[in-house]
């Protein structure tokens, strides 16, 4: 007894002295039948759930995830979205870039430090497994004694996704076939893993759709009247840009991708796949009823029903439907308010990380839809990204020179002649495994230039996500980026830092980042099918500063074999 | 011109001098939508087809298959069923035993010699990909100038399979869930990749089932009246034991698993998954019409419609339905004729490989259905087989001692007390990665002992397949094998050699093989779900004689890494 008491005391007094706690998770990824929108289909679960378990940690903590792959014949890899993996680039979880895939039956141990507070995500980064259900949230709180520059009573997290009834295998068979077969719009929008598909839809097998299945009971966010909630909202849609609204409740945007935002109030929030926001909501409406929270597809002319959750005023029953019709939300093709919101997001006074005032390199990335040997692809400056057999991190660190194309992809496009408003005269592109290598500690500007797709009068929204870094969002514009004039209007005073940012239809978005994180990092459209179809690039910096790579990330390409210790 | 002529001449005269030709195949495995039984679902194809391309070769030829895995997130491996891989045990294609899985995007090169004439098969040997459609036939002919001990005019091959509409992922989710969810009987039986599901079945989505799809036109075996056909029949069913019959036509059995059979005539042929037979059929019936060829499920009380093909007498139209009702076939639960056929198969006079008259070791293998931690499994002597992370061949060759359980599984069971006719008193089993190690060049007897499953009054048929060897089939019996009495009745005179053999319900089957092929070899029930559920064992012999292993088979378990050349 004395010994135990002593042990407890030691622990108690020891904790505050260590840098951060170790948070150890044991996860198993598996296919299981789930009915998140009442329709039963196989989903990839973590420990039986989709979304998977939340990681809740404090700044400085070490996260250890022992991931067992029980997907039978399918590999897996998990990316920790928004975590920069400083010093641990091999645990970024990007299959083909930072690691070999995790084989069925294997257990892979991810170990990394969450070095900043904020709202982050995790999700599969292999094939299209994210949209099969392998995703969840990461919430990192401030160290003890430090406080946020805003106050709230409770902290809640939700993730928005879109949901298909076709398996990812069925989708991919279409994406890579000639002619191209597009899966179409999602069957439903899920709020925190729950949505509602109409089981009476003609052609739906009755045995597969059960409207009374508790798995598709709308998610209820229960609030106490007059209290203020910090709601952390992440989007991990496969395809859709969304608008989120809680009827009758304004939201004050205070955080974006882990950075404090100069607060601004919105009636509804546009959110793109890969983004996270914290909004403050005060339960200041009539407390005798519930309210609809809704997520609506924008930027595409979708027939998908809005995702609905219940903003539940305690003590009303969480399943009591609000007496109203959910807010209609903005019109799908009204780009103006989306651009307005993008521009409105600035870094919060007192928390500004000033950007370098100049950059060492400017890369203009023209986003186009193309064909390669008759297969539909997406390209950057006419090069469509292909994964190599040996992950870049390993190939570069150990100088496997044949592992990928040594010639870098182009830094720009034919600015003078390319008409971004029309279908390209030549829609053909080439594949590439080449990468952008940046000198360590230099400053790089990226201009994402949108264009017309292969359909006349059509330009899509692409949310681009950068691994291993945050970037400053210097500006957004309409039409073709002008290298001379537009940089003069860059926001070099209080730009927000983010890891994911949209490029709007027929528009451009300008980013700046410091190439200061030794490793190899993907930068890609976060629409899962777009990345699958080649819409991404790879950056390298400071590879010589990367420490010895763990053997666990190997096993593919040039890393089949062994050496005796 | 002169040069070309000279080159052609050189080739012409050179061919007969070499040992065997090299037959080079380039294959791509891919998911594609197919409607083999009129119902559209994803299938794994090879070069766009299921069954995949046939390998047609001559004894002594070298087969090279460059297999590209385009399954996106899923690995693959192909087993060359019946090819002993003498000197090339690393190309047996058994994932977890002889190689690591082939990763998506990778191309793996199989290279082996077909050293004997006969009828063989190939199929995926990973997860349950075989029943997803990855299979085909291998036909090896005699060397020039040699002839078979029977005559025929034409040589034809067909493969019989059963076909599920649920994906293998859906099936496996059920197999490994608690409670166990069984996929049930197959939706159809395919003859050479073609079957017919009734699209009017209630609950079937009209858009998925099209009875007029040419992909489900019944297979037509066109014959010229009065000619004799050698029909090579292989079964690669996932589950079903089949009976094959061509109405009005007797069949003379002349080959089984690559060995000549003392000819015997049957009206219909029982065939189990993994077996091949050659039968001679003479088109000696009324030539003015066609005849039904039918494949019927036996040994299970199945509601699956018989598979049908058309035995088409030229010049009748190959799609002209026969005027008759297909033969009803034997009753599903009539075991006697099945046992009779098994016993009837003897080695052909003049082609007998005499078996060793004694054996060095006897292993009795009790086949039982069990639970492990509540999950349904199959076991041998109460040990249910689990794949290790490092394939045995690599682990044993390079002495990775931790890769699997070093204690061997038991050589027998509690013969005195185990009641094979009842559900076991304790249905729980244990998992094992242990293997049977046999001294090189010794003779091993295997007694496969069937028993009751976990359902009262139920014992199933299990076709067991041995990799890397043929075995002598010494005998079959009913009930419990008697170690003292039954060996006295073993056929040591003219037993057939086979690589796959059934153990009948509540019966036993006795085999003998020479442990003379250096390597590591699986021996397992060829029912795909049964092997997945643990119904298999591993044999090792002469590992010290195995040459250096190719790096291409590595990449998993202890073989993640690299060494500089």
From TrEMBL, chains A, B:
**Secretion signal span:** 1-20
Q: In the UniProt record, does the keyword Membrane occur? A: no
Output the Gene3D superfamilies linked to this UniProt entry.
Cupredoxins - blue copper proteins
What reactions does this protein catalyze?
Answer: 4 L-ascorbate + O2 = 4 monodehydro-L-ascorbate radical + 2 H2O
Can you say where in the cell this protein is located?
A: Secreted
Output the Pfam families linked to this UniProt entry. Answer: Cu-oxidase (PF00394), Cu-oxidase_2 (PF07731), Cu-oxidase_3 (PF07732)
State the needed cofactors, names only. Cu cation
E.C. designation(s): 1.10.3.3
Group of enzyme by EC: oxidoreductase
Listed under GO cellular component are: extracellular region
Mind listing the GO molecular function terms for this protein?
Answer: copper ion binding; L-ascorbate oxidase activity
Give the record's keywords alphabetically: Copper, Disulfide bond, Glycoprotein, Metal-binding, Oxidoreductase, Repeat, Secreted, Signal
Domain Plastocyanin-like span(s) in chain numbering:
32-141, 157-315, 421-542
Where is this protein primarily located?
A: secreted
Subunit structure of this chain's protein: Dimer.
Protein family according to the UniProt entry: Belongs to the multicopper oxidase family.
User: What's the protein called, per UniProt?
Assistant: L-ascorbate oxidase
């Amino acid at each position: 007894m004395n010994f135990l008491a002593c042990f407890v005391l030691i622990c108690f007094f020891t904790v505050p002295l260590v840098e951060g706690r170790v948070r150890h998770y044991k996860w198993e990824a598996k296919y299981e039948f789930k009915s998140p929108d009442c329709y039963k289909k196989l989903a990839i679960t973590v420990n039986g759930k989709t979304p998977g378990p939340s990681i809740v940690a404090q700044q400085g903590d070490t996260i250890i995830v022992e991931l067992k792959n029980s997907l039978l014949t399918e590999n897996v890899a998990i990316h920790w979205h928004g975590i920069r993996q400083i010093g641990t680039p091999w645990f970024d979880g990007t299959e083909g870039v930072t690691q070999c895939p995790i084989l069925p039956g294997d257990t892979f141990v991810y170990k990394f430090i969450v070095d900043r507070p904020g709202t982050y995500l995790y999700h599969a980064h292999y094939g299209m497994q994210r949209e099969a259900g392998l995703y969840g949230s990461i919430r990192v709180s401030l160290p003890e004694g430090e406080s946020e520059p805003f106050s709230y009573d409770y902290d809640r997290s939700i993730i928005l996704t879109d949901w298909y009834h076709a398996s990812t295998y069925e989708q991919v068979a279409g994406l890579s076939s000639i002619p191209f077969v597009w899966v179409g719009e999602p069957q439903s929008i899920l709020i925190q893993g729950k949505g509602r598909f109409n089981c009476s839809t003609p052609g739906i097998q009755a045995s597969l759709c059960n409207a009374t299945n508790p798995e598709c009971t709308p998610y209820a966010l229960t609030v106490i009247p007059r209290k203020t909630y910090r709601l952390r909202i992440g989007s991990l849609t496969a395809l859709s840009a969304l608008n989120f609204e809680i009827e009758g409740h304004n939201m004050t945007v205070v955080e974006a991708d882990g950075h404090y935002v100069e607060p601004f109030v919105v009636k509804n929030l546009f959110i793109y796949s890969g983004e996270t926001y914290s909004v403050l909501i005060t339960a200041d409406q009539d407390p005798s009823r519930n309210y609809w929270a809704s997520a609506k597809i924008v930027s595409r002319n979708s027939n998908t029903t809005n995702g609905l959750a219940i903003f539940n005023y305690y003590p009303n029953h969480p399943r009591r439907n609000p007496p109203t019709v959910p807010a209609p939300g903005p019109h799908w093709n009204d780009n103006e308010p989306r651009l307005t919101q993008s521009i409105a997001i600035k870094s919060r006074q007192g928390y500004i990380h000033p950007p370098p005032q100049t950059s060492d390199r400017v890369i203009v990335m023209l986003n186009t839809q193309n064909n390669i040997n008759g297969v539909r692809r997406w390209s950057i400056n006419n090069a469509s990204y292909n994964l190599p057999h040996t992950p870049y991190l390993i190939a570069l660190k150990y100088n496997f020179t044949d592992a990928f194309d040594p010639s870098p992809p182009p830094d720009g496009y034919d600015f003078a002649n390319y008409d971004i408003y029309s279908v390209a005269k030549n829609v053909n592109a080439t594949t590439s495994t080449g990468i952008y290598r940046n000198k360590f500690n230099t400053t790089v500007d990226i201009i994402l230039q949108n264009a017309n797709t292969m359909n006349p009068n059509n330009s899509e929204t692409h949310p681009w996500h950068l691994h291993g870094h945050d970037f400053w969002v210097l500006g957004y514009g309409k039409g073709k980026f002008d290298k001379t004039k537009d940089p003069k209007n860059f926001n070099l005073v209080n730009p927000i830092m983010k890891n994911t940012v949209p490029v709007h239809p027929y528009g451009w978005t300008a980013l700046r980042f410091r190439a200061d994180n030794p490793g190899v990092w993907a930068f890609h459209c976060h629409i899962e099918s777009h990345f699958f179809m080649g819409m991404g690039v790879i950056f390298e910096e400071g590879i010589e500063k990367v420490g010895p790579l763990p053997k666990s990330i190997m096993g593919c390409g040039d890393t089949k074999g062994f050496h005796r210790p």
